[in-house]
Amino acid sequence: METESEPYIRLATLRQLHQVVADLNTARSLADTLQAVADGVIAGLGFELSAVNLVRPDGDLVVAAVGGSAGAEALMAGRVGSRCSWERRLSMGDRWGDLRFIPYSEGWVLDDDDVPQWHTPGPAPRFPDEWHPMDRLFAPLYAAGASGGELIGVISVDKPRNGRRPGAWGREALQMYAFHAAVAIGNARLRGNMQRALLRLEREQQALRASEESFRQAFEYAPSGMAIAEMGGDQHGRLLRTNDALCRLLGRPASAMRRFSFSDLVHPEDIGTLLRTSAEGGRAELRLARRDGSYVWVSLRNSVVADAADGPRFLLTHVEDIEERKRHELQLAHRASHDSLTGLPNSAELRARLAARLCATPPRPGGGYDEEAASSDGTDAGGVYVDAAGHLHGFDDFECFGTPPPAESVPFDGHVHTIPPNEDSNADDGHKGLAVLFCDLDGFKSINDRFGHHAGDAVLIEVARRLTNGVREGDTVARLGGDEFVVLADGLGRADAQDLAVRLRNAITPPIRVDGRAVRVGASFGIGWAGCGMSAEEVLHSADQRMYIEKRSRSKERRRAG
């Protein structure tokens, strides 16, 4: 390079250096920038050969660009030197600021390492600052521009045109150039990352637009109902969007659907199921209201669309019409629990309804229920008590008067006890209980024998109809089997039950028209009373025994029918 005594040459070099630094920032890619760094050493700093070694993600350095020699480029470009070998080089030799100079007298130990290099042997220097072909000069590149940053590469230079080792000015120029080269490489990497990010973002946006369009078409043209509802906030559950299939299913236009939430449309009995489903993002079967006021059975399958930052935002709901399947299920359930001939609840259904009113806790003598037995299942009473008459009281009922609950009261375990009337007295003491009327038809066998089973079936159907018409709504009329029927009537006293038995007997005895002839049957009723501490079988057996007692107490003439 130029000598210290020629300041005008320094100025020309400075202009060249300024130009090559400017060229570094005009490169369009990282590869162009690296080549510009290598070429800038040749054009602006007076060296005939340069190489840019770039740190790879694994830490090793690869020769990314070579300037000044096509032969050197063919030999070195793309070759890799290990990080440890480079660290060894940067720790040797003379430190010229951030530069590292390894004279030929020390560098011979590096001839056989794995760092790509281009060196030729030559004679010993003729004067002290003459450049030897085996001399090595490296300019480290740091991410922050200064030596305190992360090493991102190394510029290696060779063959100064003036044949001399760089002086103070040449060293400063090379160090300054390395600083700007590191900044240019960092900027090129940043631009490359930004370009890749923008390209990736554009691809993601294109994929998102394609996905949105695919979702829109799948949503709008789905054969079953689809809806998007809001989650959270004041508008929780409000329908934001519905497809044509759901609008047709419910008979409502899309504009009207946006005024509702599913809780506005669900059957009152299914609101709990809906709330659990909305919270859990699962599935449920429930009824939704149509515009005409009718309800349709649907299957809801929910998916919670969540936002990573804000939590759940929307509820995507698939609504499938299951009305036909539900109708079949109800028909099957009805057939399983009802008599196929009369349509009345069958024996199994009767026992299930009766068992639902009973528990295993027996009453104490004199009325009421034993406290230890009532709480033996460990159920928390929750501050509710049952008195001797079976009435419910809360703590507040007593505390408001400053008195404790009576000693004979027991904790309420969630079950209202069924208490039978006092068996020791035939008088009606005003107590209301669950009456079980066991009915057996008199003279039915003779009808079957004389006129056939077809006539017998017609008689059973008519008797079932008359019994059903003779009881209150909420009472149960069941066919136990054969010509035996059972009536469950709650809230009756002894006199009420007797009156009901008389009314039902009188309803049965009028003639029944079968195939153009009139036939008659009688009926014997036994009245039993259900009470906790009894099983369903015990209750029915008690009523059955009383029916036979009543049947035997009536004269044969009065029971004759046919």
Automatic annotation (TrEMBL):
Keywords: Coiled coil. It comes from the Bacteria. Residues 432-562 form the GGDEF domain. Residues 187-214 form a coiled coil. Residues 282-334 form the PAC domain. Residues 211-293 form the PAS domain. Pfam families: GGDEF, PAS_3. Transmembrane segments: none annotated. NCBIfam families: GGDEF, sensory_box. This is PAS domain S-box-containing protein/diguanylate cyclase (GGDEF) domain-containing protein. It comes from Streptomyces melanosporofaciens.
